[in-house]
Amino acid sequence: MSQSEQKNNPLHGKTLEHIVTRLSEHYGWAELGYLLRFNCFIKDPSVKSSLKFLRKQEWARQQVEQLYLDTFKN
């Protein structure tokens, strides 16, 4: 991606760990598990286990990133 494309990317500078942490603080693990239905949010949830899953599953990561954008628009 070019520098100008990154400037317009709302997730630029946000790590996956930051995104998962903010969502878990905002919703709580139970609500996050309800919204996205990923086992990493339902069964013994933690940031570490969630990151492990989301780094392997691009489709799941995209859903988490979209929820983050929808939740924290500004």
UniProtKB/TrEMBL annotation:
List the InterPro entries hit by this protein, alphabetically. DNA-binding_VF530-like, SAP_dom_sf
Gene3D superfamilies on file: SAP domain (1.10.720.30)
Q: Which GO terms describe its molecular function?
A: DNA binding
Entries under Pfam families matching the protein:
VF530 (PF09905)
Please state what the protein is called.
DUF2132 domain-containing protein
Q: Which organism is it from?
A: Pedobacter chitinilyticus
